[in-house]
Write a structure and sequence with these properties.
The chain has 17 helices and 14 strands. By secondary structure, the protein is an alpha/beta fold. Helix 12 crosses helix 13.
């Protein structure tokens, strides 16, 4: 089958590479010539484990084709996937301008015959109906199309695994032809097929991300309670998570969620609820608790790190990605700079992205231990494996003061006490010297 994917971010490029790997001819449309050239040369532009290898493999096989021209790709494609971004506006609504702009351009390049246009972008309920209206308005005479919503559920850091082996594949459409085409293209992929209407598919995506964000904020709410009462949040959440109705996944306290999905999707669903007159205060509280988790960690830093040269390990919003969108690190660094701190940072993948935000206001180190030299304290914001397995004796020897403030609870308090650290974590009693 010939497929077009509009957009080459996390969703678009992963989707394109996976479908190409199954033997399909896949066009990828972008709007920046320089980025298209890099993709042609095997540079995925983003860090995602295994993606560069899959990109280069399918480039070499001739199954992946990159272009800025819709006329190259759309006319010969049976399915066109829209995978462009829907960032939040100031009021929390999803910005759909790129989705509609892309839909109009797709429409103008449709061939005579029937094309399935499937939206993988995360969009509020009702959007795909408006996409259909836009396509109908701009398409050539004789060209026919069918609309579907096929949301993605990939996680940054495990995007390929999630695309090859998803829990479920959601196909939302009103037409049998579109449903059959999407079932056919997904045949090699695992996962339960869930066949629903368009509106249901749109809401499934937002509901999924919002409930995961809710679990994280609930864990942080419990951590606040534990800090006031002397309980240990890790013990509490382990006991709670062993109930198989609840589970431990995403039930972890820390410095809060970030990334490209949870923050904007919680806000967008909140905005939708308000528009249609639904009491959406639960999700407003989820977002509020997430911000309080960041403020809580910042307060620990400014309370305990009285000497103002500080090292941060971890800048990406989670391990195995270079993504800093809505990352806690951005908020923490901003506030520390405002408070007069000297900030030194290390992250395996995300430093270049942080550098674009902060420039020479902070110092960057390729080596995690070198970043500690001359610092009075260490703050951990991302749970990379190399931080979990760090040589704590070396950390102790390099820091001017033995203070570790852990926003991800990656160390055990008893071990930190034995190593001679003052250790401040989340939802647990501090270890004092």
């Amino acid at each position: 089958m010939t497929i077009t994917v509009v957009g080459h971010g996390y969703v678009g490029l992963v989707t394109a590479c996976v479908f190409a790997d199954f033997g399909n001819k896949v066009w990828v449309i972008g709007h920046t010539p320089e980025k298209i050239e890099k993709l042609k040369n095997g540079d995925p532009l983003i860090y995602e484990p295994g993606l560069q290898e899959l990109l280069q493999k399918n480039n070499k096989a001739g199954r992946l084709l990159f272009t800025t021209e819709y006329k190259d790709a759309v006319p010969e494609s049976e399915i066109v996937f829209i995978t462009v971004g829907t960032p939040p506006k100031e009021n929390g609504e999803a910005d759909l301008s790129t989705v509609f702009s892309v839909a109009e351009t797709i429409a103008k390049n449709l061939k005579t015959g029937i094309t399935v246009i499937s939206c993988k972008s995360t969009v509020p309920v009702g959007t795909n109906r408006k996409v259909a209206e836009a396509v109908a308005k701009h398409k050539p005479k004789g060209a026919e199309f069918e609309i579907a919503s096929c949301p993605e559920f990939l996680r940054e850091g495990t995007a390929l695994l999630d695309t090859f082996h998803p829990d479920r594949i959601i196909i939302g459409t009103d037409t049998q032809r579109a449903q059959n085409a999407l079932l056919e293209i997904h045949k090699p992929i695992d996962g339960v097929r869930v066949l629903v209407g368009i509106e249901s598919a749109e809401i499934i995506k937002y509901a999924s991300n919002s409930i995961l964000a809710t679990k994280i904020s609930f864990a942080n709410l419990i951590s606040f309670l534990c800090e006031k009462t002397g309980a240990d949040v890790e013990e509490v959440l382990e006991g709670v998570g062993l109930d198989d109705r609840i589970g431990r996944k995403f039930l972890y306290a820390g410095v809060g969620y970030g990334g490209s999905c949870f923050p904007k999707d919680v806000r967008a669903l909140t905005s939708t609820g308000k528009k249609i007159g639904i009491d959406i205060s639960l999700l407003e509280d989820v977002e509020s608790i997430n911000q309080k988790a960041r403020e809580n960690l910042l307060n620990k830093i400014t309370t305990h790190a009285t000497e103002k040269t500080i090292t941060i390990w971890g800048l990406a919003f989670k391990p195995d990605t270079d993504d800093i969108r809505f990352a806690p690190s951005v908020y923490i660094i901003n506030e520390l700079l405002n408070a007069g701190y000297i900030v030194r940072v290390h992250d395996r993948e995300a430093m270049e992205n942080i550098k674009m935000k902060f420039g020479d206001k902070i110092s960057y180190f390729e080596d995690q231990y070198e970043a500690l030299e001359g610092s009075n304290s260490l703050v951990i914001l991302t749970e990379w494996n190399e931080f979990k397995q760090a040589d704590l004796n070396k950390v102790r020897s390099l820091l001017k003061q033995p203070l570790v403030i852990d926003g991800r609870n990656i160390y055990e308090p008893d071990e930190m006490r034995k190593k001679g650290f003052k250790y401040v974590s989340t939802g647990r009693n501090s270890v004092n010297l």
